[in-house]
Structure formats: structure tokens, C-alpha cells
Amino acid sequence: MSSVEEIEDLIGKVSLGDRQAFGRLYDLTNAKLFGVALRVLKDRASAEDVLQETYMKVWRRADRYARGGTSPMTWLITIARNTAIDKLRARRDSDDIDAMADMLPGSGPTPEQVAVAAGEAGRIADCLGELESPRDRAVRGAYLEGLSYAELSEKLGVPLNTVRTWLRRSLISLRECMER
Amino acid sequence: MTDASPPDRDDDNLLAAEYVLRLLPSSEMRAFEARLEAEPDLRKEVAAWTERLAGMNPEFAEEAATGAVKDALMTRLFGAPPPRPSFWQRLGLWQGLSVASLLLAGFFAWQLMLTGSPDPAERGPLYVSEIAADDQSLRILAVYDSNAGELQLNRTDGQAAAGRALELWVIADGNAPVSLGVLPDAEAASLPLPEEFRAGVADLTLAISDEPPGGSPTGQPTGAVLAVGTVTEL
Fold it and tell me: Could you give the domains of chain A?
């Protein structure tokens, strides 16, 4: 059984309340989801909290997986990423925005390394590469670091409206590039 | 290229992308989620953007969380810490007989033969077992005389904890433990082996558990398994 099929199978069992399958799903996927939370939050303690919250959602929402129409790993990463970003936003309300300085570029493999490693990832990296920097950085900062428009505006040193226009144009280019 | 807004026909599509990126202000996000419930086409846009942007997922470096996170998660979800290893799993922790113990058991068996029938031909086979804790804090040597149908027990190390009792169990492969009784305070004791275990004595496992005074109230071990031994024919 491929790992994609196994993860899908485990999510199906979890939706039926299978605790053993849930433990196995955790073992197979926690490193990736912890990596997501860590990338967004830059802090192990917060990332561990988010990891727990993520799997609690997975336990409760596994029955909704099939409705999403995405691959199982993408579904899990989406939950982890959204949970981490919500935590980041809640924290930002009380934190100094300066703490966010120098977030880009983040840790992890470079787009070039990733492009070599994975075909689909290579495709989006190529398409992102076609975009003019720093518009490319806006999409990457929003997706990989969970930055808001306000944070992107500060980071890239451009007004809020300009950031939104840049990002939307980037998304259109990205969509067209990936549909080619 | 100007900074003018993209054409309107793209609005829903781009809104879906911004939703996936978690860029919408919370009020707009809630409004968008309400529309998602009712609009399947919008859900497809969201799924398509989710997969497109998932192309960046390999850039999230993997890093395993500590085992404590999983324990905490399981406790939060299911209320109790992971169950203790089962009786059978704990049995697996114990390994065979030490040479010294075999020699000592042989000595006890020899004494038994001397005090029993003088003619070895009239005797059935003899079996020994060292029922021991892995750290030797409790050790009981058992010799089974197949003629008498009795287990002769000699406790050579350790004793019951204050206010507790040691209970002896016999386990036939794959079955639940059956109590042979609570060990007396004396170091030497003799307990009959129930008829149903006598034929297969060589395949039995003997175990000692920590129990309340008078033995397990449930008929199965309730306390820690302190010592385990397998049976060997002499």
C-alpha cells in the first residue's frame, strides 16, 4: 500500500472512531505537520500546542475529509497551517510587530532543492520563479510563513493596497502558468 | 502593467485563493465560509487553489515532535493515559533460567528424590522452574513432582511487601492465568497443581503477582507481575 493510500485508509478508520488508526496516523504524519507549525510560529512550545489542536480537529473532522476533494496529506497540512496561522494572529494581537522581523526567508529546503525533489512542487516553484520578485515573495510569505497583508506590507515595504494588488496578480499568473 | 484591480470575473476565484492563504479579514472569511456551504462551485475553486498552493508543501521541513506531545494529545482526547502493558506483554520482559538457579533447583529436586521414594524407577519425571524478578529481588524455585501432583516451592530471595500478599499463577499457553493460591509467609511451601495442568506441565508458565491480603479479589492478577518462570524438565 502506498503511503498516500495508507493515510487515506487511516483517515477513513479515524472517522469511524478507530483510536489505533488515529495513533498510527499521528506517527506517520506528525513530523510534517509539526514542521508546518514550526515554520509558521518559529517557536517549539507554540508549535507543539498547535500540533495537538490540529490532531484534535483531525479526530473530530475525519468524516469531512472526503468532501474536501484534496489529497490526504494536503488536507492534513491545511488543517495544521490554518491552526498555526490562527494562533499566530492571536499572538500578534498582543505582540510587538518587530518580533516578526527577518522572518523571510524561512528555514527548510530552498525552492530549487524542492524543485529537484518533487515534480508537482517543481512546477509551482517554476511558476513562482516566473513571477517578478518581490511579488513571488508575497505568495511565498503568505503561504509558508502565514503572513497577513499588513505583515507583507511591512516586510516588503509597500502600501497595503499595492501588496494586495501584487499578490492577486501573482495568483492569476500562477494559475495560468500551472494550467499551461 | 498597471496596478489596477484584476477583472471582476476573477473575483470569486481570487477570493478562494485568499481564503486558502488565510489572508481574508475575519469578517470576510466568515462571509466566505457561509457561501461555501451553499455554493459547490466555490468549494471547487477552494479545492483547486489548495492543491495548486500545496506544491509548496515540500518546503515545510519535517521535524518529529517529542513523544510527550503524543501522550498529552491522547490524554486530552481519550481522557486516560495509555494503558499499562498487558499481562502477556509484561511476561515478555522476562527471560529464561540462569545457570546458577538451575543448579540450585536441581539440588532441591535431588533432596526431594532422597526424601521421596528410594526407587527412581517408581518416580515420574521431575520439573523445575525458577520464578524470578529480572533484578532477582524476588526468586522462588519450584519443583514439580509428577507422582505427587504437587509443586514444592522454595522462596530464596525477597518477600511480599508490607500488608500485601504474593499469589502464584499458572498459565497454559494462550490462556488466562489460573490462581494456585497465596504463598504462605514461610519460605517453603507445597501447593497442589490442578489436574487439568498436569499433563502439559512442561509447557506451563508460572508467575507471582502482588495482591491484597488473601489474594486477588477478581480471580485474575490485579497487581504488578513481580516474577515469572517457565518450566523445564530435569
Answer: 3-95 (1.10.1740.10), 100-179 (1.10.10.10)
The answer to whether A138 touches A152, Cβ cutoff 8 Å, is yes
| In the predicted structure, residue B89 carries a pLDDT above the cut 60 | no
- Whether B160 is in a domain gets the answer yes
Range of the domain at B221: 87-233
Shortest Cα distance, chain A CAs vs residue B41, angstroms: 12
Instruction: Read off the pLDDT of residues B167-181 as tens digits, 9 standing for 90 and up.
Output: 999 988 778 888 888
Give residues 12 to 41 of A whose Cβ lies within 8 Å of B.
19, 23, 26-27, 30-32, 34-36, 38-39
Does residue A179 register a pLDDT over 90? no
B83 preceded by cis ω (within 30°)? no
CA distance B166 to B159: 8
Cross-chain CB nearest to B63 (options A35, A81, A123): A35
Eight-class DSSP state of B132: E
C-alpha B93, offset from chain centre: 10
Structure-model confidence comparison of residues B160 and B123, the more confident one = B160
- Taking CB atoms and an 8 Å limit, are A52 and B56 in contact across chains? no
**How do residues A62-103 score in pLDDT, each as one tens digit?**
988 877 778 899 999 999 999 999 999 888 765 544 433 333
B77 domain-assigned: no
